[in-house]
Amino acid sequence: MSAKHEHIPKITIARLSIYLQVLEQMQREGVEVVSSGPLAKACRANASQIRKDLTYFGEFGVRGVGYNVCELIRAVSRSLGIDREWNCVLIGAGNLGKALIGHREFERRGFRIIGAFDCDPFKIGEEFAGLEVVCTRHLKERIQDKNVRIGVITTPPEHAQRVADYLVGAGIKGILNYAPMRIVVPADVTVEYVDIFHHLYSLAFALAPHKS
Amino acid sequence: MSAKHEHIPKITIARLSIYLQVLEQMQREGVEVVSSGPLAKACRANASQIRKDLTYFGEFGVRGVGYNVCELIRAVSRSLGIDREWNCVLIGAGNLGKALIGHREFERRGFRIIGAFDCDPFKIGEEFAGLEVVCTRHLKERIQDKNVRIGVITTPPEHAQRVADYLVGAGIKGILNYAPMRIVVPADVTVEYVDIFHHLYSLAFALAPHKS
User: Fold this and answer.
1) Is the Cβ of B190 closer than 8 Å to some Cβ of chain A?
2) Residue B35: which residues within 8 A CB-CB, separation 6 or more?
3) ipTM field
4) Residue A159 at interface with chain B, using a CB cutoff of 8 Å
5) Do A17 and B98 touch (CB under 8 A)?
6) Superfamily assignment of A86-198 in CATH?
């Protein structure tokens, strides 16, 4: 693919996941073609922004007609790299970890959690959604030859760095970190932080009386 | 507070939650004063960006010395409106809902989940972390006079809109929506979407071979 593709801004990627969500909703409702106006409205976005974002993925729109919903979903999915399966492991089999292991949307979207790890002896050996929790020390040997690309960290913050080191040592290049803690990894490893509190902070900020 | 305060850009709010996370980490490690350089490095941000973001909250920095960590945490928390308690309710007592009810960080950060609701008769009456799951129909009467400001939606996507209508009907002005579904609410209600997949998409995009 073109160099243009590789330089899609991060903010566009973030918006694409919203477009995809809305497009899939439209698909379920039987919408076949949508123009940028109604798509923008459903996404609470700006029509020219959407048109601009979508140009990164080639020319889908037919002027005066709109976008074919199915084709657009397929093209955006392919561009994002989510038209394939991604094997993932999860470390930290607490409440959040268990919720993610059992989350039907993960698998549906091609993110297969194929291993669950924890260092707590009380959790090792437990089973969730068909996965047995294994001691984190065995991570590397357990995932050998399994083409695991993504590691999900759902440990308490104080364990996040050690777990990240295990993941890096096992050759994993993508980390989704739910622990509220920054982690240090080599430059060729990508970390995404899921910060549940920034949304709560934004809400609190929107609701707090600032004119006291 | 000043008009300046009310116009803090959303992207600054998002970054503040990272600064806060890093500052709290520093506080735990006993750091008393930090200059914008090391703070930026720990946040994987740009020092001039941090200085600019922090000016929204008044003048904390002492030129050539740095920021007092405790004071900065206090000021940012106050500005974000998270120096107080926020009563929340949660609707959707599935795996994710239960994980959030049991999440020790919620309460620690002042977001108290004081009610759990679900429309599934098999879940109604169950108890998690001291909360009994109540039928969603009783939402309004149950939260009357309890100063609930935030509703958390953790239902499957197909129930999200109905639940949002219940929350709005009960007078709630802030919604944290974990369901992968856009919802429609009146203009005076703020919705924050927690999209766990956009992070996975970003990872997939970073890891996918684009030069095929």
Assistant:
1) yes
2) B61, B65, B66, B67
3) 0.82
4) no
5) no
6) NAD(P)-binding Rossmann-like Domain (3.40.50.720)
Q: Which long-range contacts (CB under 8 A, 24 or more apart) does B35-39 make?
A: B35/B61, B35/B65, B35/B66, B35/B67, B36/B61, B36/B66, B36/B67, B39/B66, B39/B67
Q: Which class in CATH covers the domain with range A3-78?
A: mainly alpha
Residues B165-195: tens digit of each pLDDT: 999 999 999 999 998 888 999 999 999 988 7
Q: Which residues of B touch A17 (CB under 8 A)?
A: 195, 197-198, 201
Strand A86-91 to A111-118 pairing: parallel
- Could you tell me how many CB contacts below 8 A there are between chain A and chain B? 190
B18 contact residues in A (CB cutoff 8 A) = 182, 193, 195, 198
CA distances from B97 to B144, B156, B203 (A): 22, 11, 25
Cross-chain residue pair A13–B205, CB shorter than 8 Å: yes
The model's pLDDT over A74-94, given as tens digits with 9 standing for 90+, comes to 888 888 888 889 999 999 999
Query: Which two tokens mark B53?
Result: 């973001």
